[in-house]
Amino acid sequence: MSLPQSLRTSVTPPELELIASEQLVEIIPLVSMERTAFISGAYGPLRPPTKCKIPLWMATNLKLKKKCHIVPPDWLNVEFLQERLARETSQPEFSQLPFRFAEVAKVLLDVASDDLQNPDKLRFLLKDLREARQAKSRDGLDKLDHSELSLPNLSSMEINEIRPFFVRSMGILTQLVREPSAGLADTS
């Protein structure tokens, strides 16, 4: 989406996916390929059936051409996500997840769902996890304090979602903190 800078408050989800596409994922190549150099680095050689780590953008490209299978990351499975969802709903702090879990999961579910075990269940768990974490974010923003803010274990997508509200809120809080002291100086 191309918007003028004045209307953009944050990075768009597709832009975050593009950034996440630099993450390395493991593949099982179906074709042989020599080591290939790109701007971001050199990858390969690819020799079936030996696993290889390449960037997500390259893996999705090969997958769409039916030249590899993508090995899902350790965290993209039903058991792990169920355990994280249970933590999210039972503990006040955010559970630890990979920083770009939402973007990577979306790309893999869109492009390589046939390489994932139970992709429909994964979609539901990711949706529930996202909703639980959003509710926690909203609760945390209700308790926003000008002096300190700590939100460990937030993902890039979650930070991006709360950034516009947070920036405006901190600006208002800063003004409120400064105004009473300025008002006191005028009355002396």
Automatic annotation (TrEMBL):
Keywords: Chromosome partition, DNA replication, Nucleus. One of its GO terms (cellular component) is GINS complex. Residues 75-175 form the GINS subunit domain. InterPro entries: GINS_A (IPR021151), GINS_bundle-like_dom_sf (IPR036224), GINS_Psf2 (IPR007257), PSF2_N (IPR056784). GO terms for biological process: chromosome segregation; DNA replication; double-strand break repair via break-induced replication. Residues 12-71 form the DNA replication complex GINS protein PSF2 N-terminal domain. It is found in: Nucleus. The keyword Mitochondrion does not apply. Its main location: nucleus. Gene3D superfamilies: 1.20.58.1020, 3.40.5.50. Component of the GINS complex. Belongs to the GINS2/PSF2 family. This is DNA replication complex GINS protein PSF2. It comes from Piloderma croceum (strain F 1598).
